[in-house]
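User: We ran a pulldown and think these components assemble together. Before we commit to crystallization trials, I'd like a predicted model of the whole complex to look at. Sequences follow.
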Amino acid sequence: MSSQVLLIEDEPNIIEAITFILSRDGWQVRSHSGGHDAMDVVRARQPELIILDVMLPGRSGFDLLADIRSDAGLAHIPVLMLTARGQRKDREMAEKAGASMFMTKPFSNADMLEAVRALAGRA
Amino acid sequence: MAEDAVGGTLTGTRIRQQRLARGIAQGALASQAGISPSYLNLIEHNRRKIGGRILLRLAEVLEVDPQTLSHGSEAALIAALREAAGEAAEIGDAEGAAAPDLDRAEEFAGRFPGWAHLLAGTLRRAQAAARQVDALSDRLAHDPQLAASLHEVLSVVTAIRSTASILVETPALEQEWRARFHRNLGEDSQRLAEGAERLVRYLDDGPATGRDILSPQDEMDRFLAAADHHFDVLEQGGDVDAVIAQSDLRPGTGAHVLARAALETYRTDATALPQTVLLAAVKRHGLDPLALAQEADVPLPRLMRRLAAMPEEAVGPIGLISVDASGAIGTLKPLEGFAVTRLAGACPLWPLFRASAQPAMPLRQRIVQPGRGAQPVQAIAASEAAAPPSFNMPPLMRSFMLLLPDTPEDRDAAPMPVGTACRICPRTGCAARREPSVLGNTEDAKL
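Assistant: Here's a predicted model for the assembly, 570 residues in total across the polymer chains.
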């Protein structure tokens, strides 16, 4: 098993921090920061888990999630959604779009680790 | 029409009240005004409409302003009273209490002007407060600038929190990583400070600083209206930046962006058709937009914008409204006597909304809004492409409507009845109606 996490997020220092934490936990982390071509990266990487920011440059994370869920080859991959707004509307939209878990910024590293472990265990 | 009958009620009743208040007998007033007592009796009981000389003579004898007797000055007040009644009915006010008698609004305004003004004033203040609440909640819920600001701050906070806890919680962190995360922290804390400052500045510009919460369009309107829609600096080939720097518009706001775009257009228009050239042409042709556009060799929309930018002492009052393809109002220079609001959708019967159907065909129509005090106006409408052309794409149109005061020569054509916005429009049987009026035309339920 590859234990690969794909992190789709546009904030470079968040990418760096999450990459560091998850790498220390034994994950192989790949990151991508654009919205438009993110689907190509998901298809190419076939990660075990995806961490997906809602607000991406070029494309909404919700749209991306809908594409992942409607692709037979990718639909099974657990997706952890990140958003800067904890509003109920965002949470509802994430659930409707098929997010496996939802996390509000700013999160703690421990929460992030726990969420990734839980999703991977479920996967 | 019912409106006229009601209008008559007011004038007659007022004459009677004024006469009784002064203790003058009907016969005495009639003889001093030079009319027969029976005629005055008919007037006082609203069986005869009066105006002109008789009204003036009666006012003179009664020692009151003719306006006080005539209905004209009170039209707005009565419209406000009807509106108040409509709003009360809409929100299901006054449970169990008697509903206001809509058909007696004029009588109420005539007999108790103080109370009527108080009620109208209260309505206006309530509406202003409601608009402000709307603007506030809109600002919080949908304001893209606020959302972007908050998103930025939260993103940076997230990065800082993660980075900081790595530094604190990772025992024996390698020197290289430590240096890297410290640098990230430094960068992010700087960005956070800037983002927070922007956010605070933005929120500070709210009502607490005395600035009304206005939409960017309202703020732009206020800026343009303060200059009477005329900018000498730009007429003389000056710089847009210089004009905007003189204003109190804050850089980075929506109003600043809108005003800049309006001024850029102004400058381009002024270069193409300088004020001296246009005013000289107006001397020859009068306010004939087609002749002026032809002589100056500019498209009609540009000519219309230029006319609306001329000083009022040179060309008289001129109004201009522009809309985009969705019907949203862009430019708004009002002409007295023709009501326009950005708040509710405009009346689709305006020639403005027909101009883009055949962009090469400018329209000219005499139109009149409802209300007894309303004056017909000359509307000239034309469209232009709002963006450079693209292959195989229909042009994105923008339409303009110039509003000119009615002139005697125009009076041969009957004005076409139009409205302001459905909500406050009393016209019945209108095919264009999209929402019921608050003025209580119950028979006009068809949408």
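Chain A has a mean pLDDT of 86. That may be worth checking against your pulldown data before setting up trials.

User: Thanks, that helps.
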